[in-house]
Write a structure and sequence with these properties.
The complex is a heterotrimer of chains A (357), B (267) and C (272). Chain B is mainly α and 267 residues long. Chain B has eleven helices and no strands. The chains are: A alpha/beta (357), B mainly alpha (267), C mainly alpha (272). Chains A and B meet through helix 1, strand 2, helix 3 and helix 7 of A and helix 3, helix 5, helix 8 and helix 10 of B.
Chain lengths: 357, 267, 272
């Protein structure tokens, strides 16, 4: 018994010591009280130097938290108990949050740098007039492939994937809308289609893809393509840019039938405490040079047209990641289809997943 | 001392340990990679380690993780031991099975559900999200595993031990502290270590109930998955691993000195 | 004198925990399961569970959980036994547990690297002349990594049971002419059954709702109930359906507990 008690007391003491250390570190960072701004963002989605710069320029202390999925983020904000001043959801989630009254309207007069954003990316259906959000990064969904593993084969459309010679070569992303959307697009339908017949048709077509599908994975898909586990992957453009940087055999293409145009935008959730500070931060990130620096770090595509002049030429002239307006015209943004339709998408996707065995 | 292990036994153990540590060494190996990823070792570098030392935010997160793990394991072990003793003392099989089933509910439930329901309960109770909500939740989901580790020892304990103690005039408290607890101590330590593991590994529950800038290593790492886990996490894990090894080995040999062990003495 | 009051007082924290952190969430989950996606009171979730998709998922979950538990037991038991016979057994035990403190996602990424087509495992296979094989996204790698994760949980309780074994019992058995196998079957194993049961519970029950590994290692070629719950809760935001699956998981767990629980008939040990 004494051995136990001794063990427990020493653990309690160590914990106490650590707690003191944490408190000391936190206050040395100025985290206790005062003018703070709480930011909720995807992991590794900002150049941390910029946070330091923002803190220096404005004197506001930044508290930074990360999330790994839109839905989880929304659940956190919805339940209350949090005080995030800034969040960075994807476009379909912004649509949802807007409709569920979870966002605070932006005061555009406090955002003079808004003019830096390319008009193509403003006033989109998920947030008319950009009342609630401002673009942060954008991209497309497409096919990344390793030509050397496929005897030099090139891809231009979704339907290319159904080629029987591609047995076990494809890695799909674990997203119902992305995959069902791909099925819909390959049949010439919109990826916002809610017609049940079309959806069932899309799923049937996807089932025919099964022999070519190696696995359905999440973020680790990037690592897999890089490791040459599979020759082909359906990925987001940002991920493609990342791995193409590491492996020069890879190429990325946005299929000709059409695809998804995605955005991650900055919003101010209803639970915000420092609305003024939030506006300052958004305006700061919209500054051309700041956006350029951020883009070079994150390496996704920036919606900030003024930032382009501060970035390396080869980055901005890369049509694969900065497609022409003609191409972006053909791409669709996800609309919020409503809970019922979303459930149908997910049910079909679940059946598709189960049919992989 | 028991007869020494046969070569085949030693080989078996070696293989087990090799497999157990293979991924760890893989991580350590790549923490020195000058290439950015966990494939293609390009060249040796200490850059990732250097990056760690400037990252105060990450340091705070690591400390948070340790404090939560230690404290939650401590409290949940105490509560779990008491709970196991209580369950064991219940004579009606029906009630005992019901309690056991209730105990295991959290183990069978997916983390998402635990996280979401805890979040709802906490916000209903008006508890602010942050350190305390995370600590409470970790204690909550560690208790069942402690119970499951302690219970077998209780069941193995011969009831005549207690009878003998009582016959010799021991009070209830003395029976508890001088008979029961010493017997089940291995189970208590097992429960404690398993609680530590549950706490270190947890992502979903912590994610849902945290707030106010409080974060643990798991949450950080999982959030990095979308962008790709940079190798400074490998470096961090390597350091933590070395630290744990030193702690484990060091503690063991210190405890060995001048310690006549009552339990587990073999001829 | 026995003090009934203080005696029961000590168990209050645990009882409280059950009330607040078990009964309350279960009630919550049960409550949600009766609402469909639009928020209307309905039994549609339960009806949906009895469709082929979910039934197949249930079978699949049970099958893999069973497989993982069996393999873990097969690997863990000898390991625990051999460790009890080493000189520094507690040290080795701690060394077995230590890797489990490294983050799961990191270990999974390491396994992706190890089992990859161009990874370490295949490199070794090539050296032995067996040639490269598809290891990732197979049942094999999935079970392998799951067993890897669960081993410490199985070893600990079994070790605890084995450690208490009185060696003179083994000697007596041998003296009476029993072979090594018979000694194991009739003496060692029955005496450690509590540890085995505890270990199996701690492995089988969580294995039913594995989600992360099914995606990371099995590439969703294995679908468990956990996959569905994750999707329902997070993506579809259909908390109703997600809760319903959880209710069934709990029911399955209770059934297993009752089936493998303590029977009335026990050995002479517990007869008063």
């Amino acid at each position: 018994m004494t051995k136990l008690i001794r063990a427990f007391i020493s653990i309690a003491l160590v914990s106490g010591g650590l707690l003191y250390l944490i408190h000391h570190l936190n206050s040395s960072q100025g985290l206790a009280g005062g003018n703070t701004l709480t930011i909720y963002n995807w992991g590794d989605y900002i150049d941390e130097e910029l946070i330091d710069r923002f803190e220096e320029e404005t004197g506001i202390k930044v508290i930074y938290e990360t999330f790994d999925s839109n839905e989880a983020m929304m659940t956190k904000i919805e339940q209350g108990g949090t005080t995030y001043d800034i969040a960075v959801p994807s476009e379909y989630m912004i649509d949802k949050m807007r409709q569920e009254d979870l966002l605070i309207p932006l005061d555009h007069s406090k955002l003079p740098n808004l003019k830096n954003i390319d008009e193509r990316f403003m006033d989109l259906p998920f947030d008319p007039g950009n009342q609630y959000s401002v673009p942060y990064f954008w991209g497309t969904v497409g096919i990344v492939y390793n030509s050397t593993m496929l005897d030099g084969k090139e891809f231009t459309s979704w339907n290319d994937l159904w080629d029987p010679s591609l047995k076990n070569e494809i890695i799909l992303v674990d997203g119902a809308r992305e995959i069902i959307g791909m099925g819909l697009n390959s049949l010439g339908y919109s990826l916002n289609d809610t017609n049940l017949d079309h959806l069932i048709e899309a799923k049937a077509k996807l089932m025919k893809l099964t022999p070519n599908v190696k696995a359905i994975v999440g973020d680790e898909g990037k690592v897999l393509i890089q490791n040459r586990e599979a020759a082909i992957g359906i990925v987001w453009s940002g991920d493609a840019a990342d791995i193409m940087w590491e492996n020069e055999d890879l190429n990325y293409v946005v299929p000709s039938e059409g695809s998804n145009l995605w955005f991650d935008n900055m919003v101010i959730p209803k639970t915000a405490k420092n609305i003024d500070g939030a506006h300052q931060f958004i305006n700061f990130m919209l500054d051309a040079e700041v956006a350029a620096q951020n883009t070079e770090y994150v390496s996704y595509s920036t919606p900030n047209k003024e930032a382009l002049q501060y970035m390396p030429e080869d980055m901005v002239s890369d049509e694969r990641f900065y497609p022409s307006p003609e191409l972006t015209e053909k791409l669709e943004v996800y609309e919020n289809l409503g809970k019922k339709n979303l459930a149908i998408y997910n049910q079909l996707f679940l059946e598709f997943k189960m049919g992989q065995n | 001392m028991r007869d020494k292990l046969a070569i085949s036994s030693k080989a078996y153990l070696f293989i087990i340990f090799f497999i157990l540590y293979a991924p760890i060494f893989y991580l350590v190996y790549y923490s020195f990679n000058s290439g950015g990823t966990m494939s293609n070792f390009e060249g040796f570098t200490l850059d990732w380690y250097k990056e760690l030392f400037g990252d105060t935010r990450l340091l705070i997160i690591v400390l948070n993780t340790f404090v939560i793990a230690l404290l939650s394991a401590l409290v949940s072990t105490i509560i779990g031991v008491l709970g196991a003793i209580w369950i064991h003392s219940i004579k009606q099989r029906q009630t005992q099975n019901t309690l056991l089933s209730l105990n295991n509910v959290l183990i069978v439930s997916p983390d998402v559900i635990i996280g979401a329901s805890f979040l709802i309960l906490l916000t209903m109770a008006g508890i602010k999200l942050g350190f305390y909500s995370v600590l409470l939740s970790h204690i909550a989901f560690s208790i069942p595993i402690v119970v499951l580790m302690v219970l077998p020892k209780l069941k193995e304990m011969s009831p005549s031990l207690i009878d003998a103690a009582r016959d010799l005039g021991a009070s209830q408290w003395q029976v508890l502290t001088k008979v029961i607890i010493p017997y089940i101590t291995p189970g208590i330590f097992a429960g404690f270590f398993m609680a530590l593991t549950y706490s270190f590994d947890d992502f979903a529950v912590t994610f849902f109930v945290t707030g106010n800038g409080f974060s643990t290593l798991s949450v950080e790492i999982y959030s990095l998955a979308r962008r790709g886990i940079s190798l400074n996490i490998n470096a961090l894990s390597t350091l933590l691993f070395i630290f744990t090894m030193l702690l484990v080995v060091g503690y063991y040999f210190i405890a060995q000195r001048g310690n006549t062990r009552g339990l587990g003495v073999r001829k | 004198m026995e003090n009934k009051v203080t005696r029961n007082l000590v168990f209050i924290p645990y009882a409280l925990w059950i009330l607040i952190f078990v009964i309350a969430p279960v009630t919550l989950v049960l409550y949600y399961s009766f609402f469909d996606i639009e928020g209307n009171l309905s039994l549609v979730n339960y009806k949906t569970f009895f469709t082929p998709v979910y039934l197949k998922m249930t079978l699949s979950s049970f099958w893999y959980a069973f497989l993982i538990t069996a393999v873990t037991l097969l690997v863990a038991y000898p390991t625990a036994y051999l460790i009890t016979r080493t000189k520094h057994k507690h040290l080795w035990l701690l060394l077995i547990i230590a890797p489990s403190w490294i983050n799961l996602l990191l270990k999974a990424y390491a396994f992706i690297g190890i089992f990859g087509t161009y990874g370490t495992a295949n490199a070794i296979l090539e050296v032995f002349g067996i040639g490269s094989k598809q290891l990732l996204f197979t049942d094999f790698s999935f079970v392998f990594v799951s067993v890897y994760i669960f081993i410490p949980f199985m070893i600990l309780p079994i070790f605890n049971s084995l450690n208490e074994l009185n060696p003179s019992l083994l000697d007596a058995s041998r003296d009476l002419g029993a072979s090594k196998w018979t000694t194991f079957r009739r003496v060692i194993f029955p005496l450690t059954i509590q540890g085995v049961k505890s270990g199996c519970q701690v492995v089988f029950i969580p294995a039913l709702s594995l989600f992360m590994l099914t995606r990371l290692i099995a590439g969703n070629k294995v679908i468990t109930l956990g996959t569905a719950i994750e999707q329902q809760f997070l993506v579809t935001q259909d908390w109703g359906m997600g809760s319903t699956i959880a209710v069934f998981l709990i029911i399955f767990m209770v059934v297993i507990m009752v089936a493998t629980g303590n029977r009335k008939k026990r050995g002479a040990k517990n007869e008063r």
